[in-house]
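Hi everyone, sorry if this is the wrong subforum. Our group has a chain we'd like a structural model of before ordering constructs, and none of us has done structure prediction before. Sequence below.
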Amino acid sequence: MEKLLGVVMCGGQSQRMGTDKGLIKQGDATWAQLIFNKLKQFNIPVVVSINPTQTATYSSIFNATDLVTDAMDIPGPLNGILSVHASYPNNDLLILACDMIDMDYPTLKQLVDIQTTDSGYNYYAYNNGEFFEPLCALYTARGLNTISQTGLSNYSLQTVLNNGNTKRLEITNAKAFKNQNNRE
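Answer:
Right subforum, don't worry. Here is the predicted structure as tokens:
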């Protein structure tokens, strides 16, 4: 747990939603704040991964020290994950997307617990039988170092998890993984 860093993933383009999902309000808090607080329940440091266009807006919500801006020249969410890794190279990253507002503590705790008891994997991710849930996963510093050193030809997180040394966890609470890509 001492090497664990929580990461709220907010750097996407939100094209399907049409608005920055991390800034959507639920009560008095933004979705990004809700996810930040879910990760803080583990008594670990937490950062927010953003893209450069979000700096001004997110700086008005979070401390500057809580923000990590995408710094890699690669597409997709792996940019955010590797940018955080570059800033915190010795930390394992507990990743949670800002739109996973239905995520519950027991589901996250299972990720943390399995990595503690079965530490031989580079990645720990839920799998629904068809694909991984890569934005509710634990990426070890060891695994991310391997990606950083060897590079990739495909930046898909599905490819990283399918081809990597990944511990597959069964989803027991499907509601926690509800898709928030529309506001119905």
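For your construct planning: Helices lie at 31-40, 55-59, 77-87, 105-117, 141-150, 157-163. The radius of gyration is 15 Å.
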